[in-house]
């Protein structure tokens, strides 16, 4: 497989993982406002908070390579982009697996009791880690050595405009479905009884989060319409520039919306607006570091050298 196809395959794999993460993030946000959530034991509520934060971290890691590719990689097929895509996917799997285990714990506990819930959560977290990382690490010792050596020797490739547009569209598709699912959960929350009990500032913050995610969806869908109406689907360097800026810009309101809803949700669970603000601020800081600070650091390093 040449490097261009390898980068495309890596972005497609990230798209699969990101959609699953973002759907679960939406569920974890919405679950807090269900009628029976208030009756959960404190450890189950804490598990939901931990699972939510872990899943947001996984989403941040999985979306980082696409943003890095746009800001730093100029949508080129490089070894650096391929390596970062693989590395971020590997780093995202442990928090994804742990969050999944916590979700199973909460669900199983309501059906079979605390002991069974804990056992089920641990079992599914271990199963996910084993299937996603352990199996591959064990197989690595016996298989794939030739392919890894070839990957180390392969040089960077120059992608043409059409291929760059394909990369950019794949990056947009990585973000869009999850953002749409999250917007659906945000809209459903507004119609719950628990939402009515929020303070006016909390309701306003959720409305702002909803608006941010909706704006992100509009920006992510704009390149497809622009490409069709202006260029009839043909490859154009001008379109690549405009579309890349739109997709990159869409991550700003998306990150803000996730952080704002994390503040509302965690503040509601703990009964403390201050705790919610700290959680939301922490989420925003982590996403900013993963999505913007690290690519900017790598860009400055490239310009210096």
Automatic annotation (TrEMBL):
<keyword id="KW-0472">Membrane</keyword>
<keyword id="KW-0812">Transmembrane</keyword>
<feature type="transmembrane region" description="Helical">
    <location>
        <begin position="204"/>
        <end position="227"/>
    </location>
</feature>
<feature type="transmembrane region" description="Helical">
    <location>
        <begin position="114"/>
        <end position="138"/>
    </location>
</feature>
<dbReference type="InterPro" id="IPR046291">
    <property type="entry name" value="DUF6328"/>
</dbReference>
<feature type="transmembrane region" description="Helical">
    <location>
        <begin position="174"/>
        <end position="198"/>
    </location>
</feature>
<dbReference type="Pfam" id="PF19853">
    <property type="entry name" value="DUF6328"/>
</dbReference>
<feature type="transmembrane region" description="Helical">
    <location>
        <begin position="46"/>
        <end position="67"/>
    </location>
</feature>
<feature type="transmembrane region" description="Helical">
    <location>
        <begin position="88"/>
        <end position="108"/>
    </location>
</feature>
<feature type="transmembrane region" description="Helical">
    <location>
        <begin position="239"/>
        <end position="260"/>
    </location>
</feature>
<protein>
    <submittedName>
        <fullName>Uncharacterized protein</fullName>
    </submittedName>
</protein>
<feature type="transmembrane region" description="Helical">
    <location>
        <begin position="266"/>
        <end position="293"/>
    </location>
</feature>
<keyword id="KW-1133">Transmembrane helix</keyword>
